[in-house]
Amino acid sequence: MSRSISYITSSQLLSLKRRPNIAIVDVRDDERSYDGHIAGSLHFASDTFLDKIPSLIDAAKGKDTLVFHCALSQVRGPRCARRFADYLAEMKEDAGIKNIMILERGYNGWEASGRPVCRCTEIPCKGDSKVPSV
Length: 134
Ligand SMILES: [Zn+2]
Prior knowledge:
alpha/beta, Oxidized Rhodanese, domain 1, five-stranded parallel sheet, 5 helices, globular, disordered C terminus, binds zinc ion
């Protein structure tokens, strides 16, 4: 049985982001390195995504909500979210993850609506600690 995947808007994500139990998973490929990214997001490129699922589960330890996105969240984001859900279903474990979501309109929509972006080159991004609270 495969779990359902829901969509979340950028404004919903912005308010959820303050919770410590959410992980944002950027599955863009090269674009991440020159387009900026959502502060604190993890990077698991779609082209190697399947192989990296175990390390994603590791990186998301302690989180119960994973939000996937790519540039537009039309192809890569939903596909990786689905693969991740299928993987958990096959493993018959949930790794503590209750919600799998997709960011509507992806990174481009996030940036276009003026949400804060991070342009650091750190891996993993620690951007959240540097974002001034408003
Ligand atoms: Zn960053």
